[in-house]
Specification:
The protein has 462 residues and is an alpha/beta fold. It has 20 helices and 14 strands. It has a five-stranded parallel sheet, with helices on both faces. A five-stranded parallel sheet has the order 7-8-11-6-12.
Length: 462
């Protein structure tokens, strides 16, 4: 329900307009003069103000100026007599949302009010997002003082003011979208749209329509023209998450947008031009994808003007206490649990876990612990995931004589690394180096398998 303040010195007009707008579902406040209306503006979370231009004492123009001091984004609709149109235009130049000249129709008024309310809703959402991104801790809402994270912050500061395309790489859960938002919110485009597309979440047949829109009748089910994400992002930034999932047939159209800033909707012949900054992300090695012929080399270089690499959480374990405290504060506010704390044992356990899902997994773990813990203290048992519970040793190992296979001089790490590397290579060979199948065979995630392959420099033999 939108809240509206009507300001007019004619009591009958206030009554008639109030009844009309209440019937339309608006919450209505009224004021007979400028001074009274300003008290309402200060005390009530309004969505729109409607004011008459001509009033005794403080007129509509003066009221507009005072409102803009209190809340410069609040839409003000001016009601004028036909002869006062020039004054109304001057009011719009001073910040009024629009004006209506008497006599006007009820439909015209309702349509204008809904436009103003939707506009204000978008402005407030944009403000909320800016506040979230520029958050309470760290650079642009990101937390960490690890040297590699400090390098990321420095790179964001340098690249944000430029129009350069940015490619962000890193494992799932490392915060790629947060970096993209930070770049956008610290750029000249910050007041314009930030549009996200998860390229891996859409079927190949739908992705082109989602990115570029379609005309009515372009395909079965296209019952109306629909704008794509590039049109919606015009003037702002589009974030293509998992860009490596875009099929080759569609990559050429994306390359054209990068080169010429133009495209056609699916089923359309009209060429559309947009001004959009492209930020992309992938947890795949796109250079390897190019080498395998699955990603266009020219597109890769267009996307990879600036490359930001995010470290995995296990590579910045010194940031763990900062991140844990950040998430505890966050969920303490959300759950209204004052003085929520975590024990040293619980923090020590968190420091030892592998965090294959990185910061996102840590956040989910803290949220679950904050909900389920007794009282306001998170204990070690609250943060221990089921996956790390150690069951009884496998039966086949009970009679294993380590002296027969492990030299006395070998350290524990030497043995663990040797066995791990051997099992990884064996699983990859048995699955013809299909990583998803090898990871399933080993009981680990694909992203962890890729990390370990890099660690041991395991590659398929040609």
């Amino acid at each position: 329900m939108y809240s509206i303040l009507i300001v007019d010195d004619e009591p009958n007009y206030l009554v008639v307009l109030s009844e009309l707008l209440r019937d339309e579902g608006f919450e209505v406040f009224t004021a007979a003069n400028g001074e009274e209306s300003l008290r309402v503006v200060k005390d009530v979370d309004l969505d729109i103000v409607i004011t008459d231009m001509q009033m005794p004492g403080m007129d509509g123009m003066q009221l507009l100026q005072h409102i803009k001091v209190i809340n410069k984004e609040l839409p003000v609709l001016m009601i004028t007599a036909y002869a006062e149109v020039e004054k109304a235009v001057a009011a719009m130049q001073a910040g009024a949302f629009s004006y209506l000249a008497k006599p006007f129709s009820n439909d015209e008024l309702i349509v204008t009010l809904h436009k103003a309310a939707r506009h204000y809703s978008l402005v407030r959402e944009n403000t909320r997002l800016r506040s979230e991104i520029r958050g309470r801790s760290g650079f642009s809402g990101m937390v960490g003082k690890n040297p590699r994270m400090l390098q990321v912050y420095e790179l964001i500061e340098k690249v944000a003011p430029t129009p350069a395309s940015v490619l962000i790489s890193g494992e799932s859960g490392t915060g790629k979208e947060l970096v993209a938002k930070a770049i956008h919110m610290n750029s000249p485009r910050e007041s314009q749209p930030f549009i996200t597309v998860n390229c891996a979440a859409l079927a190949e047949t739908l992705l082109e329509s989602e990115l570029f829109g379609h005309e009515k009748g372009a395909f079965t089910g296209a019952v109306a023209m629909r704008k794509g994400r590039f049109e919606l992002a015009d003037g702002g930034t589009i974030f293509l998450d998992e860009v490596g999932e875009i099929p080759l047939a569609l990559q050429s159209k994306l390359l054209r947008v990068l080169q010429e800033k133009s495209f056609e909707r699916v089923g359309g012949s009209k060429t559309l031009t947009v001004n959009v900054r492209i930020i992309s992300a992938s947890n795949r090695d796109l250079r390897e994808e190019v080498a395998q012929g699955r990603f266009r080399e020219d597109l890769f270089y267009r996307l990879n003007v600036i490359h930001v690499t995010l470290p995995a959480l296990r590579e910045r374990s010194d940031d763990m206490p900062l991140l844990v405290n950040y998430f505890i504060d966050k969920f303490a506010r959300q759950l209204q649990k004052e003085n929520l704390t975590i024990t040293k044992d619980a923090l020590r356990l968190l420091m030892t876990l592998p965090w294959e899902g990185n910061v996102r997994e840590l956040e989910n773990t803290i949220e679950r612990a904050a909900i389920l813990c007794d009282g306001n203290c998170i204990e070690a048992e609250d943060v221990q995931p089921e996956s790390v519970h150690i069951e009884n040793t496998a039966a086949w190992s009970q009679d294993l004589d380590l002296h027969q296979i492990v030299p006395d001089s070998a350290s524990l790490n030497d043995v663990l690394y040797a066995v791990e590397e051997k099992m990884l290579y064996q699983a990859l060979e048995e699955t013809n180096f299909v990583q998803a199948r090898a990871a399933e065979k080993l009981g680990i995630t694909k992203s962890l398998l890729q990390y370990k392959m890099k660690k041991y420099q395991i590659r398929k033999k040609k």
